[in-house]
């Protein structure tokens, strides 16, 4: 659950299904209906996934059977259907490692995914950011939507750029 | 309301729960819904107050960074460390921090130090304290139910929802994205403050030195402490990491502090009072009772 594969944009979209809530209240907007099927399933599921599913703190019952639809990683506000799947794109943040851009996928006012549209490549520092900071940022954004956890504590991580893009998307989404 | 901010080289996030019935119609409004302190932030006219408080808290974090950063050669702490200015020339908060560092050094038998490597660097105290104070700013503005997370160290106030305590996932130190445990605040009603701090090598490598040996501490992969306020909880977490397994007996000495650790070999241990909401199901190691 919640693991994130660096440099695999599709993974960012697929993963958050693990915390998309369908419990914790009568009116929760479960992922369903007009959402399309996951864009991809197998190839992006990394080696961590099975293990993580077994040890994750979220019980399997809370997981919807389908992942949120992926809006293709192209940004824009791809509203689909009547009740969800809206994508709000953040600004491009220039970092010294290259441009960074994220997008939120919303169902109503609930964040169902954080997508990475652009991320820098090519050095170890970048890998550290992608592997560590981004998943925690993603958890941060998603955990508020979860009936199980509200935030995450962990060894201090660093981030540059992602937060700027993420905040601009949060602002744009009116959250 | 949520806000994220980059400061002190990491991410700070603010999550303020106003329990606004308009947006949380699926929540079962409990006993705190009618509490004046809780309801105050629900009023639309109060939103501007909350936003102003967040802006004040953010400005505070940047001020702390500018004052205490050892990465900024012109910061008062950098200049103090080089002997260019005296303590009296610094903002009074510098003396406050150094006083707290001295307290922590004594309480941790020297495992906490404001002089890692022999040079003045109170960073091990500053971040938790800055978050703690940022939380105070929000409380003073009437936003009594909130979470402030600074790079993985968390100060919580009140509850996550009516009658619902805050729950904090503890990041697994060796499996990115996975949780090693879930902690639950003991508070189900407004008013209580609860802090969760984690120290470890996962994000920045072996950077915590055992001041008694001068070598990086290596017995633990991470240790998570819980206590009422983040200032000392965070400082103690750094010291406890340096102590290694010996921390198990030490942490219950300081009032209200409990610990959960993942060891370098992948096992776990915790103190009896650690507020575990859901136990870890780690492949290796099971929580063992405290000796």
TrEMBL record, chain B:
Q: Which Pfam families match?
A: ApbE (PF02424)
Record field: catalytic activity? L-threonyl-[protein] + FAD = FMN-L-threonyl-[protein] + AMP + H(+)
Query: InterPro entries from the entry?
Result: ApbE, ApbE-like_sf
Q: What class of enzyme is it?
A: transferase
Q: Keywords of this protein's UniProt record, alphabetized?
A: FAD, Flavoprotein, Magnesium, Metal-binding, Transferase
Which Gene3D superfamilies does its entry note?
A: ApbE-like domains
Its needed co-factors are: Mg(2+)
* One MF term in the entry's GO annotations: metal ion binding
Q: What is its EC number?
A: 2.7.1.180
In Swiss-Prot or TrEMBL terms, this protein is called FAD:protein FMN transferase
Organism of derivation: Sphaerisporangium melleum
